[in-house]
Amino acid sequence: QFRADVAISAGRIVAIGNLAGRSAQRTIDVSNQVIAPGFIDLHSHADKGLVSSDALRRAAPNLATQGITTVVINQDGRGPASIAAQRRDMEKLGVGLNVIQMIGHGTIRRAAMKDGYRRAANKIEIDEMRRLIRAGMDDGAFGITAGLEYVPGRWSTPAEMKTLIGQLAPYQGVYVVHERSSGSRPMWYFPSQDNPAQPSMIDNLQELIEIEAATGVTIVATHIKARGVDFWGSSRLMIDMISKAREKGAHLFADQYAYNTSGSDGRIVLIPKWLKTRLETAKPAAKKNLLPAELLEQGLADEKIAADLRRDIYYEMMRRGGGDHIVIVEHVKADYVGKTLSQLATINKCNEVEMAIRLQLQGDRTRPGGARLRGFSMSEKDVEALAAMPWTATSTDAGIALPGDGPVHPRFYGAFPRKIRRFALDRKIISLEEAIRVSTSLPAGILQLEGRGVVRLGAHADLVVFDPQRIHDRADAFKPHQYSEGISYVLIGGELIVEKERLLGNLTGQVLTRTGARAAGSK
After folding, report:
1. Which long-range contacts (CB under 8 A, 24 or more apart) does 359-363 make?
2. Residues contacting residue 517 through CB under 8 Å, at least 6 positions apart
3. Which helix or strand (DSSP H or E) is residue 326 part of?
4. What kind and span of H or E run contains 308?
5. Could you give the dihedral angle defined by the CA atoms of residues 401, 403, 408 and 410, in that order, rounded to the nearest 10 degrees?
6. Rounded Cα gap, residues 133 and 112, in angstroms
7. Closest by alpha carbon to 406, among 367, 365, 359?
8. How far, in Å, CA of 433 to CA of 445, rounded?
């Protein structure tokens, strides 16, 4: 850190230092505050909001007020069929943030395989996906995202992914991958019906290391985590694997929203989704369109189904953090709100599985699960360990939200200020300078963004000014629609989008294009 004035002209930084006596059209006094590069969100779901008919939504209030100036969209293998058409739509409407487009692996897999994606792709299909990747890159995409825990990516093979990711090498593109599993097994796995031989997060990392070694393509293990009680503590092995690969020259990185709770909206359901299909198969003549509570009652009346239900409810609880870490956020019984599943089980003199069943039967019978729950599925020690790594960039894994929207994860409003406040200023797990670096120049280097992610002469004037005494995230599980505080000013291309902590609503963002070779020092 050092004290200096910053001068901006025509969207660029033109002077840094003691500029006393120099004239300007406007001077902003930010004494005792920090001037940093604008934050770059490596994993953003802002894409839908950025093409909304609502100009306020396109201004991305929850993201801009965090200090975010650039978002990387089309995550988890999702995205449009045409990168060029998406770009045209955003440029026509106007967007509040800079945008980096990615190609969705799931999108091109569906295009190549149609409805037959529940298997490995054949050579003809892979060749078609390769063609679609080249077309997307030629249209300006920065790389590929994949959702290997989701449909249709979960049926891809490592060989398929290696071939496809290799197409990025001539473009020096980036591969951002949602893991096949973030714990011991994928989120779609249930012990009552699935083969236990499923990939873990460790298997996923090994696949990425091998793909990087074969292709040389920069890879980001996105929203990295160790989810599930049986997987807590695994960050040590994950860190060791990534660090050793990087020591050998691998361009391997991660990004992280630094919370110990996952899931976008806190609507986790402990009752397995297979129940409806199983009942319809077992009793085809049974009444259709039953309420969730009625489905559960029917399932419990069948001895075999009931045993499988209880087994899978317990498993779902444990991968969501266990009864001590599952909190009731909404329930028809007001005194349940704020208590954990374990606390309610004790109060009601039953075990935690039975308490999960009672939430459905005695709660909102029309709502899956009967209540809104938030699971704290990660250990805070793992979150801290991963946050401390110099190769872990900050991200939100969040879309654009407005206060009138439904429930969202607190990260939608607070991910970047939280990294600074909680992990740097309060807990001192990393320094303030490091918290800024992993939110700015690190992602800029990964993406090879020239003149962004830094405060230096000639750089783009994408800047955030914050008060280190006041910066903090306010959003939580119960009141997620709360803007962060302490972000005083945000500029994109030298134009204010946040002034005195107030969103201006200016649509000054650009859809960025790839330029330059691999950024020096991005490793």
Report:
1. 359/270, 359/328, 359/331, 360/271, 360/292, 360/293, 360/296, 361/293, 361/296, 361/297, 362/332, 362/333, 363/331, 363/332, 363/333
2. 172, 448
3. strand 326-330
4. helix 303-319
5. 100
6. 11
7. 367
8. 16
The band of 285, judged by pLDDT with boundaries at 50, 70 and 90, is low
What pLDDT shows up at residue 70?
A: 98
Burial of 285 (0-12, 13-18, 19+ CB in 10 A): exposed
Question: Maximum distance among all alpha carbons in the chain?
Answer: 85
Find all residues with CB under 8 Å of 98, minimum gap 6, and list them: 38, 69, 70, 71, 462, 492, 509, 510, 511, 512
At 286, the pLDDT band (50, 70, 90 cuts) reads: low
What's the token pair of residue 358? 């009672």
Residues 6+ apart with CB under 8 A from 77: 104, 105, 106, 107, 109, 145, 146, 147, 148, 150, 153, 178
Sign of the dihedral through C-alpha 199, 205, 208, 213 = negative
Residue 25 carries which side chain, given as an amino acid letter? Q
Nearest to 369 by CA among 266, 230, 264: 266
| DSSP classification of residue 421 | I
Residues 6+ apart with CB under 8 A from 177: 145, 146, 148, 204, 208, 219, 220, 221, 222
For residues 83 and 106, is the Cβ–Cβ distance under 8 A? Answer: no
The backbone torsions φ and ψ at residue 251, rounded to the nearest 5 degrees and listed phi first, read -90, 75
Query: In 3D, which of 261, 276, 267 has the Cα closest to residue 369?
Result: 267
Task: Return all residues near 300 (Cβ < 8 A) that are at least 6 apart.
Answer: 306, 309, 357
User: pLDDT of 430-489, one tens digit each?
Assistant: 999 999 999 999 999 999 999 999 999 999 999 999 999 999 999 999 999 999 999 999
Prediction pTM value:
0.95
What's the CA gap between 497 and 380, in Å, rounded? 34
Two tokens at 69? 């100036």
Q: What is the mean pLDDT of the chain?
A: 95
Count, in order, helices (H) and strands (E) of the chain: 17, 20
Whether residue 176 contacts residue 222, with contact meaning beta carbons closer than 8 Å, is answered with yes
Going by the DSSP 8-state scheme, the letter that residue 83 receives in this structure is H
CA angle 438, 440, 443 (to 5 degrees): 75
Per-residue pLDDT tens over the stretch 69-124: 999 999 999 999 999 999 999 999 999 999 999 999 999 999 999 999 999 999 99
Instruction: Name the token pair of 260.
Output: 């110990």
- Please state, in angstroms and rounded to a whole number, the distance separating the CA atoms of residues 62 and 66: 7
Query: Is the model more confident about 212 or about 266?
Result: 212
Number of neighbours of residue 407 by Cβ within 10 angstroms: 18
Record the tokens describing residue 389, joined without a space: 């790594």
Separation of alpha carbons 105 and 144, rounded Å = 6
> ω into residue 152 within 30 of 0, thus cis?
yes
Strand spans (E) along 3-111: 5-9, 12-17, 34-37, 39-41, 44-45, 68-72, 98-100, 103-104
User: How would you classify the pairing of strands 174-178 and 143-147?
Assistant: parallel
